[in-house]
Amino acid sequence: MTSVSPAKATRKEWIGLAVIALPCLVYAMDLTVLNLAVPAISAQLHPTSSQLLWIIDIYGFLVAGLLITMGTLGDRIGRRKLLLLGAAAFGVASTIAAFSDSAGMLIVMRALLGLAGATLAPSTLSLIRNMFHDEHERQFAIGVWMASFSVGGAIGPLVGGVLLEFFWWGSVFLVAVPVMLLLLALGPILLPEYRDPQAGRVDALSVACSLASVLATIYGLKQIAQHGWNWTAAAAIAAGLAIGTAFVRRQRHLAYPLLDTSLFRRPAFCAAIASYSLSGLAMFGVYIFITQYLQLVLGLDPLRAGLATVPWAIGFVAGSLLGPRLARHMSPLRIVMGGLSMATVGFVLLLGADGAYGLEAIIAGMVVISLGMAPVFTIGNEIILSSAPPERAGAASAISETGAEFSGALGIALLGSLGTVIYRHGLAKAMPAELPTDLATAAASTLGGAVAVASSLSGPNADAVLAAARAAFTDALQFTAAIGAVLMACTTVVAARLLRDAPPRRPLVPDDAA
Predict the structure, then answer these.
(1) What average pLDDT does the segment 243-252 reach?
(2) Architecture of domain 11-192
(3) What angle, rounded to 10 degrees, do the helices at 38-45 and 103-117 form?
(4) The whole model's pTM is what?
């Protein structure tokens, strides 16, 4: 390291950033775009209930399970090379998936899409580390990178709805093909190559342990979110944690580890990972209640409910681009503390969901949360990249993304389960006494089940079931929002303590591509 002023990015790097942002947008879209196509897929391919779950979930499972492996592999073979290989595989798998003629074939293609998708996030983020050497420019580039994920997640359902209106279900997969072709055409020209010249062999056993640990743990968490606590979920989580522990211990004795545990001895790195992960846990845990609240409590149709979430996405884009500007005048400590404090206020605003202005409270809360969290994510990722040695930037970015995947699944499982307990408890107290047991059980399972039960009844009982279910679900939403506010407040304290203990960062010498 030296105090030499880092080189400024040229037009080539900025155009390259746009090329990088496109596959990230498609990656995020693929997590949400398929949901609207499920009825059409079911009608044509006739999957079993188990096959349908795998069609939806296998993509996210493999993305989460392979992020650490792909980040380290990019450091070894070249980040641009891995990105282009992943783009080619993503385009081919998307094309074949669009014309799948059986549920099994579609599951296999979704798995291959997850394998290819796992290359995109760590490769693109670590390439930004090599393309933008000036700290402020790098922060802005990471803001654009973060915004592309937000836009992709937001427009996924809208794009899917438009395509399904005019084309067959396979069209939702073909959106990715032109984007990947563009990346393959321009990537070799605009993106630099970088690999660790001292990289060792990727340990195959570590790869297997990493994948098994993440898959088992997330599978268990999703089982809890869908079916509540059960022995299958507990066994899967226990197995995942045991394998994960063995994986971490093995990394400490490898010359070239898949996971560089020494990074966690750096206070700034730990603060960024903690802020990113705990914020994601709170956000995803509450968001699953918000989407149901909009449609089943407020009675909005899918289009209006989708439009109500657009301000949330806009807030994330604005916050992602605002973070780098704030960094010119404020320290990372103040940005992180301010953003987390603002997110805490956003969760508190969600407590107004039971009032006369419930929709306004939800929209305001989501916007404040997104505006607070986005700068934390942007600056946090910049801290993560800067904390790691340049040759391990891919591995560091993979840790960040894996933490985000884990926290999202954990938030849905834990807060979703707690919210379900509150919903069932509240509904049981207000349920009409004369309601048959089977109908009461169906109403207590989910809010959607309660709405279906109410529609099958008539008179005062129908109104009573619907009112009780909506009130109980609103209580559950408020309960999870309160937990989110407490979690954000605690995260603010922890991040502040770690960042105060972190040594000041020094300017970095521009990295030469190897």
Answers:
(1) 84
(2) Up-down Bundle (1.20)
(3) 140
(4) 0.74
